[in-house]
C-alpha cells in the first residue's frame, strides 16, 4: 500500500488559520478552525457550505443523526444542520469554561473542558457531570459505554451509564500518556508524555487495559494527531505532527511496525479516516488534503 495526496482544498476556500478538528460523517468532511468557522467539504475537498460558528476558536466537532455539534473556548456548545450549517441551538453557554473536546456515547453528548470536568447532555439538555482532575484535550468513545480522555500526563478511562434518571460513572484506569489518542480495532493508542513515542494498550476492561507495546521515538518532534482504521484486515494507525511527516503503522497485539512515511509541506494538527482508504489531513494555516491509501 502507498500514500498519495489525491485532493487539496483551494487557497480561496481553506480556513484562514490553523485547523483544530476534522470530522468525517455520512460521506462529508467537516472542519473547525481557529478562525471560528466550520466548513463542510465533499470528499474531493470542494467547499459546500461554511458558517462563522464562534467568535473565536472551534476546538472540536461531533455528529449524531442529523446534527453537527461544535464547542469553543468562548464557552459554548452549539448544534448545526449537517447540510446547510444553519444554526439549530445553543446547548450550553458558560463564559468561565473552555470546552476543549466533545464526543457521543449511547446517544448522549459528552463535553470535556479545561478544568477536567466532563458534562453530559441527553436530548440536548444537561444530564449530569463528573470530573477526572485533568484538562481534556482529546476524547474517544467505544461500543462498551467507555470514554477515553487525555491531556498531557494521563489517559483516563471512564465507564458511563446513561440509562437511568441520573448519570452513573466509574473510573476504570489511569495510564501514563497524553493526547492525541485513537482506537484501532481492539487497541487503544496514544502518545507518551514526551509526545514522541506511541504507546499501545489493549481495550479490554476485564484485563484492565494491559499494555501491549510501545514504539519509542516514533517521530522526531511532538505528535499532534492519530487516526486509526482497519484496512484489508489489518489494524492501521496514522500519526503526524510537528515534524511534517505522516507515518503509517501496522498494529498488532505484540508490536507496532512502520509501514510507510510521507513528507508534507505543513505541520499537521488533525487527521480523520474516511471511506475506501481515504485519510483527511488538516494543518497549520488552514491546509487541508486528502491522502489515499492504495
From TrEMBL:
Gene3D superfamilies: YVTN repeat-like/Quinoprotein amine dehydrogenase. The keyword Repeat applies. SUPFAM superfamilies: WD40 repeat-like. PROSITE patterns: WD_REPEATS_2. WD repeats lie at residues 51-90. The keyword Repeat applies. It holds the Pfam family WD40. Keywords: Repeat, WD repeat. PANTHER family: F-BOX AND WD40 DOMAIN PROTEIN, F3I6.5 PROTEIN. This is Uncharacterized protein. It comes from Brassicogethes aeneus.
Amino acid at each position: 500500500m502507498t500514500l498519495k495526496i489525491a485532493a487539496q482544498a483551494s487557497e480561496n476556500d481553506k480556513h484562514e488559520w490553523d485547523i483544530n478538528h476534522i470530522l468525517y460523517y455520512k460521506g462529508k468532511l467537516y472542519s473547525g478552525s481557529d478562525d471560528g468557522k466550520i466548513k463542510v467539504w465533499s470528499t474531493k475537498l470542494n467547499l459546500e457550505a461554511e458558517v462563522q460558528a464562534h467568535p473565536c476558536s472551534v476546538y472540536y466537532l461531533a455528529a449524531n443523526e442529523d446534527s453537527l455539534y461544535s464547542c469553543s473556548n468562548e464557552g459554548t456548545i452549539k448544534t448545526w444542520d449537517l447540510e446547510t450549517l444553519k444554526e439549530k441551538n445553543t446547548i450550553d453557554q458558560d463564559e468561565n469554561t473552555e470546552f476543549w473536546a466533545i464526543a457521543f456515547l449511547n446517544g448522549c453528548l459528552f463535553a470535556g473542558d479545561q478544568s477536567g470536568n466532563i458534562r453530559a447532555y441527553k436530548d440536548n439538555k444537561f444530564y449530569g457531570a463528573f470530573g477526572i482532575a485533568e484538562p481534556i484535550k482529546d476524547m474517544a468513545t467505544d461500543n462498551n459505554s467507555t470514554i477515553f480522555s487525555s491531556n498531557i500526563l494521563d489517559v483516563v478511562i471512564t465507564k458511563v451509564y446513561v440509562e437511568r434518571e441520573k448519570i452513573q460513572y466509574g473510573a476504570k484506569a489511569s495510564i501514563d500518556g497524553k493526547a492525541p489518542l485513537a482506537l484501532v480495532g481492539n487497541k487503544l493508542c496514544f502518545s507518551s508524555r514526551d509526545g514522541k513515542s506511541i504507546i499501545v494498550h489493549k481495550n479490554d476492561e476485564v484485563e484492565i487495559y494491559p499494555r501491549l507495546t510501545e514504539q519509542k521515538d516514533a517521530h522526531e518532534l511532538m505528535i499532534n494527531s492519530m487516526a486509526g482504521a482497519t484496512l484489508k484486515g489489518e489494524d492501521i494507525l496514522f500519526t503526524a505532527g510537528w515534524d511534517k511527516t505522516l507515518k503509517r503503522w501496522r498494529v498488532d497485539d505484540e508490536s507496532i511496525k512502520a509501514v510507510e512515511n510521507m513528507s508534507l509541506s505543513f505541520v499537521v494538527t488533525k487527521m480523520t479516516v474516511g471511506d475506501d482508504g481515504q485519510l483527511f489531513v488538516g494543518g497549520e494555516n488552514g491546509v487541508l488534503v486528502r491522502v489515499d491509501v492504495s
